[in-house]
């Protein structure tokens, strides 16, 4: 009996010694479909689209997890896991995201998986940390819903590059405006019936007139960039091939103002060489769809892009060194904000709320 009493005393003593002296940090665990959570997630999606260097805009599909941590001296940090879906809007397309169509399963959909930390301070949301990757739906799943649909093809596939060359040549041949150069191949699919290659690619206007170009290598992109986006199908036929291409031209983007040493803006000076150039042709409307084809054409081989079938979101933030938080502190990409340390005991928040949240479109 004395031994048992001694053991109980030792156990109580050990428990008192092992108990933490400082209270842990407490996080809020919101519902994944809570309006405040969704507001933070939408800011995260806007951040993705604002920093994409190529490919297509993404839209929110589902919020998987959310924790809200206190941030000293003020504010809160939303720790989010979200899923996105690729839309059909090219990244430079001015169409508002709300009006962009989500790419369907039959078109070989692409899903994004992202981790974000978003600061909320004084009612404003600011992204502190972002990490994403994306992947296409499996070929097996596409075949289940559409056995004859085309699958994504590598962008440096020989047939893909040839289809883009032929389509761009056909567009420039029938254009009455600027000569356009290839910016990137954005998407490609091999279609089984009829045997054809479908491609989507981005272009930009040059200082040459399409009808007068003799040496494309001497054409330079305009200072005020005008981009376009093209969709084309190259169909294989006995004795040749037919191409049908549609290009939509976006409004010209003004040249960003340059800063003088004192911080004031100055207008971009026009050099002698620039003044000698002909003004950009106005035959093409700022935003218009131009359709040509079917035609038979040949074109020089374009430079091959990387061996990939889609624009992976893991490359979305290349070249973005840091962002400024609402408190004025610089939070470098890849650096987790100082909201909690693994060595600190974290007290559980309220009872877990429903997560993951609702699926807005479909799940891959």
UniProtKB/TrEMBL annotation:
Residues 27-133, 144-255 form the Cystatin fetuin-A-type domain. The lineage of its organism: Eukaryota, Metazoa, Chordata, Craniata, Vertebrata. SMART domains: CY. It is found in: Secreted. CDD domains: CY. GO terms for molecular function: cysteine-type endopeptidase inhibitor activity. It holds the Pfam family Cystatin. It comes from Suricata suricatta (Meerkat). The gene is AHSG. This is Alpha-2-HS-glycoprotein. It comes from the Eukaryota. Residues 1-18 form the signal peptide. Keywords: Disulfide bond, Glycoprotein, Phosphoprotein, Repeat, Secreted, Signal. GO terms for cellular component: blood microparticle; extracellular matrix.
